[in-house]
Write a structure and sequence with these properties.
Elements lengths: L2 E3 L2 E6 L1 H5 L10 E3 L15 H13 L5 H11 L11 E5 L2 E5 L9 H19 L3 E6 L3 H10 L5 E8 L5 H8 L6 E7 L2 H12 L2 H6 L2 E3 L5 H16 L6 E6 L4 H11 L4 E8 L4 H8 L1 E3 L19 H8 L4 H14 L1 E3 L2 H10 E5 L2 H15 L5 H12 L5 E6 L7 H8 L7 H4 L9 E4 L2 H11 L1
Parallel strand pairs: 5-15, 6-7, 6-9, 7-8, 8-16, 10-11, 10-15, 11-14
Antiparallel strand pairs: 1-2, 1-3, 4-5, 12-13
Helix pairs in contact: 2-3, 2-9, 3-4, 4-5, 4-9, 5-6, 9-10, 11-14, 15-16, 15-17
């Protein structure tokens, strides 16, 4: 298996070469040269860990042995709180919720980042090298990455989050970690500002010459493929020919993982992308006009995004992997903050995705309605998907993804049902701990200087 870049389709890199880099030197995102197909029959009756092995192995088999991958996967999911790892809850006829909050930080990001942490530890132990992990977070990625990498002597971790624009629980999950290899930067700006700084640093020659920068955002390919696992897993829990998925979307990583599952042979009928009021994905696919607007603060902060990094992967695929066209598009978007997507690309995306935008008031109403009708309490990100699930009436299994534990967003829950959600003991503890973070202006040079001083 080899990998190309969205901005250079002639590239041919090995898995190990792309794993630690995240972004290609040309600024593009990595994708496999070809999509392996998976036999669904061979997955029947397997555990989550065994399904994960079958899905991930084709992408890395040239660099990691079959048995070593088994060890890495088993270690990744040993601290999850549910025996099924990702249980499927049937709430109504043909309506299901895939719960993805049983990892150590109570969010779906754990499913990929615990694997990434175990994978990095395995490879670094073999090579005796050191790396610097750099990531931007709109909430859950940061805490999941910090939990996966804390206390590792060969990894320094730098996480950028938008100052005062994540929930208190999300922030404290990051800033109360005491290990010396963890560094939190609160950037005075939006998630998009944090993400832009990270992208610029990955192509900065000076910082790359002084340390080995590694991406943990969903720009890192292994994040995508690790998330593809639970789409297969949820389908295998049903006795259905086809399935629809409803995916709350911010950075486009989770929904693209579903698209990868379809490439690999999962019989997906429809893929629903759900945004909040920051609806650039909904607008871009519906109209072909991709335009940055001001980021709105909502009850679902992890989706308060205007530049969805992984959308570039879909634009590339929908252009029939034409990296010349993609380069022109992304350069124009970077300069003008808006583009008109070519009609052939728009039509291809519309043939794959149905899109929806859900307002804050609809989020609160959905949380309340599901609580009253089904005694099911969801976080506000999950509620965007449940809003769509609620309206669907068909004879196909519809699975909506539950992104995080509701306790992480107690203000939204209180506003919806007039009571606070039950808090797991692991989250209660963080309110008694001292926070540790550095507040910085939205300035790449400042961030770069701080990183170089701390590594």
């Amino acid at each position: 298996m080899h990998y190309l870049s969205t901005r250079n389709n002639q590239l041919k890199e090995s898995f190990l070469n792309i794993l630690f880099r995240g972004l290609s030197k040309d600024g593009g995102l990595f994708l496999p040269l070809e999509w392996p197909t998976i036999s669904l029959k061979n997955l029947q009756g397997k555990s989550y860990q065994e399904v994960a092995h079958s899905i991930i192995y084709p992408y890395i088999q040239d660099d990691i042995s079959y048995s070593d991958l088994q060890i890495i996967i088993n270690k990744s999911y040993e601290n999850f709180d549910h025996k099924k790892i990702a249980p499927l809850v049937n709430i109504d006829q043909n309506k299901y919720i895939l719960e993805l909050f049983y990892g150590p930080t109570f969010a779906f990001k754990d499913y990929a980042l615990q694997f990434l942490g175990s994978l990095f530890s395995y490879l670094l132990n073999q090579s005796k090298k050191k790396i610097t992990v750099l990531g931007a977070t709109s909430g859950d990625t940061g805490s999941a990455a910090i939990n996966a990498f804390k206390g590792k002597n060969d990894i320094e971790v730098f996480i950028l989050h938008p100052h005062n624009n994540v929930s208190e629980v999300q922030r404290r999950q990051m800033t109360t970690v005491e290990e010396n290899n963890i560094h939190n930067f609160a950037i005075e700006g939006t998630f998009d500002d944090c993400q832009n700084i990270v992208k610029e640093l990955f192509v900065d020659e000076e910082i790359q010459s002084k340390t080995s920068l590694t991406a943990i955002n969903s720009i890192n390919w292994i994040r995508i493929i690790a998330q593809t696992v639970y789409y297969f897993w949820s389908y295998l829990q049903l006795n259905e020919e086809k399935v629809n998925f409803i995916v709350p979307s911010g950075n486009f990583g989770n929904i693209f993982s579903a698209r990868v599952a379809k490439y690999m042979g999962l019989p997906i009928n429809e893929l629903h992308i759900v945004t909040n009021e920051n609806d650039i994905l909904h607008r871009s696919i519906n109209t072909g006009e991709m335009k940055i607007l001001k980021v709105k603060q909502t009850y679902s902060p992890s989706m308060d995004i205007q530049i969805s990094s992984n959308f570039e992967r879909q634009l590339f695929e929908s252009s029939k992997r034409n990296s010349n066209n993609l380069n022109e598009l992304m350069l124009s978007f970077s300069n003008d903050k808006k583009i008109t997507i070519p009609e052939n690309i728009v039509k291809d995306m519309q043939s794959i995705y149905k899109t929806h935008a859900v307002t804050d008031s609809e989020v609160l109403q959905t949380i309340k309605e599901f609580y009253n009708k089904y005694n099911y309490l969801s976080d506000p990100h999950t509620a965007t998907g449940l809003n769509v699930l609620n309206k669907i009436n068909n004879n196909i299994a519809n699975i909506s993804l539950a992104c995080a534990h509701p306790a992480k967003f107690k203000n939204a829950i209180f506003d919806a049902i007039n009571q606070e959600p039950p808090i797991p003991k692991e989250l209660k503890n963080i309110f008694d701990k001292e926070e540790k973070m550095i507040i910085l202006e939205n300035n790449k040079r400042l961030v770069k200087s701080k990183i170089l001083n701390l590594i």
